Amino acid sequence: MIPRHSPGTLDQMRPAGAFVASVLTQVSRAATPGTNLLELDALAHDLIREAGATSCYIDYHPSFGGSPFGKVICTSVNDAALHGLPHDYRLANGDLLSLDFAVSLQGWVADSALSMIVGGQGSAADQRLIDTCEEALVAGIAHAQPGNRLGDISAAIGEVSRAAGYSVNTDFGGHGVGRTMHEDPSIPNDGRPGSGPALKPGMVFAIEPWLMHSTDEIYTADDGWTLRSADGSRSAHVEHTVAITKNGPLVLTQRS
Q1: Confidence at residue 24, expressed as pLDDT on a 0 to 100 scale
Q2: Residues above pLDDT 90, as percent of the chain
């Protein structure tokens, strides 16, 4: 069953969403050439402490993880597609960096991700990959309407991705969000329009397209966490926590 929340409860979720958005903004600004990934994790950790929030990642140990994650933000660089474990690496100009961050604040979880080119100038192909992910996210959110079906969100993401020439991996995707980071339902990044459960006001989802340049296959790196593209091509990943309301989708992690 997909949890549904009252309008008052959705208001209670807003601080978590605003905090996650703020941290991603601050960490992305700090992600300049020469910055160590461990420094980005330390910054996010400091911001969590200051806010009285709780990391959803540091003790996270699902079946596919080699150990408890141990850090508070995912830093996926270049061919790292998802779950990038922060390590001793200094960012270089032109790196494609994805940041994924989730916390619990005042009892509610928010989850969001962004991709960026370090130093602001990278390849046109990398920028197109990021742009396509963002367009797919916008399309998915636009279909998060009461009366639609869950498959409409997935289909919209897949349509944008495939139209741009990318193949789509459906092993990892979006999910429900509430008191915990991963709740029902699972939201693949491709699907069939009109399929799946009906969308109703009060449902809250993390919608998260991710794409790789030239493959849809991944493997787990030696750290037991980082998922890398099978052919070494670069990846992008974006995500927002979105509530369905009677007036349409409400993006709780919108960055200013």
Answers
A1: 98
A2: 97
The position carrying tokens 């330390």 is 42
Residue 19's CATH number: 3.90.230.10
Question: Does residue 256 belong to any structural domain of this protein?
Answer: no
Yes or no: say if 208 and 182 are a contact pair by the CB < 8 Å rule.
Answer: no
Q: Is the pLDDT of residue 121 over 90?
A: no
**Average pLDDT score, the chain:** 97
- What domain range includes position 128? 7-251
pTM exceeds cut of 0.90: yes
pLDDT (tens digit, 9 = 90+) per residue, 143-153?
Answer: 999 999 999 99
| Pair 205, 175: CB distance under 8 Å | yes
The pLDDT value given to residue 256: 85
Q: Give 21-64 pLDDT, tens digit per residue.
A: 999 999 999 999 999 999 999 999 999 999 999 999 999 999 98
Report the DSSP beta bridge partners of residue 116: 97
The total number of structural domains that make up the chain: 1
The answer to whether residue 11 sits within a structural domain is yes
Q: How many other C-beta atoms are found inside a 10 Å radius of the C-beta of residue 5?
A: 18
Q: Give the 3-state secondary structure of the chain.
A: CCCCCCHHHHHHHHHHHHHHHHHHHHHHHHCCCCCEHHHHHHHHHHHHHHHCCEECCCCCCCCCCCCCCCCCCEEEECCEEECCCCCCCECCCCCEEEEEEEEEECCEEEEEEEEEECCCCCCHHHHHHHHHHHHHHHHHHHCCCCCCEHHHHHHHHHHHHHHCCCCCCCCCCEEECCCCCCEEEEECCCCCCCCCCECCCCCEEEECCEEECCCCCEEECCCCCCEEECCCCCEEECEEEEEEECCEEEECCCCC
